[in-house]
Amino acid sequence: MRVRSRISVLESIPRSVWVLGCVSLLMDVSSEIIHSLLPMFLMVSLGASAATIGLIEGIAEATAPIVKVFSGALSDYLGNRKWLAVTGYALGALSKPLFAIAPTVGVVVAARVIDRVGKGIRGAPRDALVADVTPVHLRGAAFGLRQSLDTIGAVLGPLCAVLIMSAWADNFRLAFWLAVIPGVLAVALLSIGIHEPARAPGAKRVNPIRLENLKKLGANYWWVVAIGGVFALARFSEAFLVLRAMGSGVPLAWVPLVMVAMNIVYSLSAYPFGKLADTMSHTRLLIAGLVVLIAADLVLAHGNHWGSVLLGVALWGLHMGMTQGLLATMVSHTAPAQLRGTAFGFFNLLSGIVTLFSSVIAGELWDRLGAATAFHAGAVFCIATIVLLVAGKARDTRVAPR
After folding, report:
1. H helix count then E strand count, the chain
2. Environment class of 251 (CB within 10 Å of its CB; exposed 0-12, middle 13-18, buried 19+)
3. Calpha distance 70→67 (Å, rounded)
């Protein structure tokens, strides 16, 4: 009966969500070929330190949410989300050749910023589009499905990186050139595969960033934003997982396998936990995800062997499967329909800015006090988030506003 129920839910999810998931899959193959190799490329080929890598990743991750505020608000104003998403995916695809030709760290920074600007442009309109086309009672499952397909791409990308590095003698630049192909395919699929719902007859354009409209987002939404911000302190860039694997003694070409392990677990867990978010307390599920992240941090802090690193990154992937779709669901349920793009934009803005600081802090701790200290700091921030969740007034984010 449970299997039939799961199949029934999957069949009920709109076709557009499946297409968006496949677009995310292709772009993640492209991006993860590069991201799984970039920390090694920076350190081995360009001589960057862990602190420099943390700063680059922090700047990149902060760039996307700053752009998301404006792209989300613009999608609400225009009533058009698809073509903003297409623009963002196109920028992401166009950034890939810059990594292949980069002679210095500065060019890599420029490429990462362009890539993240593209991510910022597409992220909020895409998430708002998922909410627009999906019935309320299926949104957790829909976000979980899109995230699962996205993460399948994040599994395939590092696998492709391993194959390319093994077959062509650790040729970073060739791998970066080949990453262009799935990025272009993602843009083509989104352009022809999605038909956006028409704006309601008589609907008026409003400026969503006006103060009176921001007030309509409500206390429950801003509580979710606050929780997401504190949570971001605990989640520094996954680039540090790659650096941790480099210290475990495995051949350079095999290091991207840590991202494969993380994303396999992420992919397998995102949909089931997304579906669970439709029936379970969001606060309890988020706390459970934080406990798993604490376990990941402790394993990565104390385990230097390849097997310990794999266990740590698998736990990291499980926490992401438990929490990332959940946070998107919480935002969609607490924001009014006409302001969803703006809501996702502001949520991602705060989370991204905090991630910049957390990645810089992790890099400095790594260089000055060692990898273990960086992961211990992550665990401490997890505990702080749990305290905030337990001490704060409980809010039921499973009921979407009208």
Report:
1. 17, 0
2. exposed
3. 6
From 4, 112, 7, select the one nearest 53 (Cα to Cα). Answer: 112
Q: Which residue has the higher pLDDT, 111 or 13?
A: 111
Task: Give yes or no for a contact between 178 and 171, defined as CB atoms under 8 angstroms apart.
Answer: no
Position 1 confidence tier, pLDDT thresholds 50, 70, 90:
very low
- The number of residues in the chain equals 402
Which domains can be identified in the chain, with CATH numbers? 14-195+209-391 (1.20.1250.20)
pTM: 0.70
Whole-number CA gyration radius for the chain: 20
CA separation for the pair 85, 87 (Å, rounded): 5
Helix (H) or strand (E) holding 301: helix 282-302
State the residue for tokens 């902060």.
Answer: 62
- Cα separation, 96 vs 114, in Å, equals 9
The secondary structure element, H or E, covering residue 113 is: helix 105-133
Instruction: Give the CA distances from residue 24 to residues 54, 127, 151, 189, 323, in Å, rounded to whole numbers and listed in that order.
Output: 25, 11, 8, 10, 18
Question: With contact defined as beta carbons under 8 Å apart, do 389 and 287 qualify?
Answer: yes
How large is the average pLDDT for residues 276-292?
A: 86
The closest of 346, 369, 151, 357 to 260, measured between CA atoms, is 151
How many Cα neighbours within 13 Å face the side chain of 125?
A: 28
| Burial of residue 169, with CB atoms counted within 10 A of its CB: 0-12 exposed, 13-18 middle, 19 or more buried | exposed
